[in-house]
Write a structure and sequence with these properties.
The protein has helices spanning about 20-25, 30-65, 85-90, 90-125, 130-140, 145-155, 160-170, 180-210, 215-220, 225-240, 240-255, 260-265, 275-285, 290-330, and strands at about 70, 80. The protein is an all-alpha fold.
Length: about 325
């Protein structure tokens, strides 16, 4: 009797022709990997939908509220279009918050980078108790702003320890109520921020410097390069990617800054330490102008995204230039 087999039902006879399915022709290993990826996706789908949906829904709803004249409670909502955005452009306090943000970002980032790189280079040297120094440098990072704020308010008070120390060493003419006057309040907040977050910069720079080839440094030393020359010409170019990443994080963090200025100065005196985050809160909660606060928050979102995109493009350009340079050397 003739053995009749139906094409495609026997694994020993692979299907051919136009009617054969692509996954039947695919190797078993590839089908297995594809099945595994498809099987895992439904498990993350609920979390993906909830997180993404919640975020984008809130952004969309906030955008709608920014077009209203509304206090957030009343059932009466009056549509006013782009008036809240036009109001922001003519609001001197809003422009003041942007100025404070720029000063805060530039000073804190530059000082943190200088201190972070200097400490990372020093602790890469063979010094005793380096592990203890790392812990001491990183301790401020784990302290919550709610804990630090009362301490710094006492330190910078008119009769606080800082002024007492200045008077004790004969510099009493410098003593002043640091947080109670517009000319010095922002500087006090910057000092607090630097003390709080320099540990993060130090850890990242320390890890980046660990990836620098020691042979390059030793060759530079044999050529007569000093420590400063090695840091400037070898270490800093090698950790440029880390510097850009920290600049991005610092810029976005400064744009949404709220806790430190609110807890220490509450935006005062005379709006001298007002930032976008504190100004949005002031408009939404104490003043009840939710529409204007929503417009300010959308502006904050656009600024943060624009800053992130700008720094990312800059980082990509530097990476491509570095890759071309390496190819040219080869």
């Amino acid at each position: 009797m003739t053995d009749i087999r139906v094409r495609g039902t026997d694994a020993s006879v692979p299907p051919t022709g136009a009617g054969a399915r692509s996954d039947d022709r695919a190797p078993a290993g590839r089908r297995r990997r594809s099945t595994t990826r498809t099987f895992g996706f439904p498990w993350i789908l609920p979390a993906l939908v909830v997180s993404s949906g919640l975020v984008y829904f809130c952004i969309g709803y906030n955008s709608w509220v920014s077009l209203l004249d509304w206090n957030g409670i009343s059932p009466i909502q009056r549509f006013i279009g782009l008036d809240n955005y036009l109001r922001a452009l003519s609001d001197p306090i809003f422009w003041g918050t942007l100025q404070h943000t720029l000063i805060y970002f530039v000073v804190t980032f530059v000082v943190q980078s200088v201190l972070g790189i200097a400490l990372a280079v020093l602790l890469h040297s063979r010094i005793r108790l380096s592990g203890l120094f790392k812990v001491i440098i990183f301790i401020p990072v784990v302290l919550a702003p709610a804990i630090m704020a009362p301490v710094f308010r006492i330190l910078f008070a008119g009769d606080g320890p800082i002024n007492e120390f200045l008077r004790a060493v004969g510099l009493g003419f410098i003593a002043q109520p640091w947080l109670a006057q517009s000319s010095t309040a922002l500087g006090a907040l910057i000092i607090m921020q630097i003390w709080n977050t320099t540990g993060i910069s130090f850890i990242l720079y320390y890890a980046a410097i660990s990836q620098v080839e020691t042979d390059v440094i030793e060759a530079a030393r044999l050529d007569g390069a000093g420590n400063i020359r090695i840091v400037w010409s070898i270490i800093i170019p090698s950790i440029r990617g880390t510097i850009v990443a920290l600049a991005m994080l610092s810029a976005i963090g400064t744009l949404k800054l709220f806790d430190i200025p609110y807890l220490v100065t509450a935006g005062g005196p005379n709006f001298s330490t007002e930032f976008l985050g504190t100004y949005i809160y002031r408009q939404a909660v104490p003043l009840g102008d939710v529409g204007y606060a929503s417009a300010l928050s959308i502006i904050l979102l656009v600024l943060a995204l624009g800053m992130a995109i700008l720094l990312s493009l800059r980082s990509n350009e530097e990476r491509q230039a570095k890759t071309k340079t390496k190819k040219g050397i080869r």
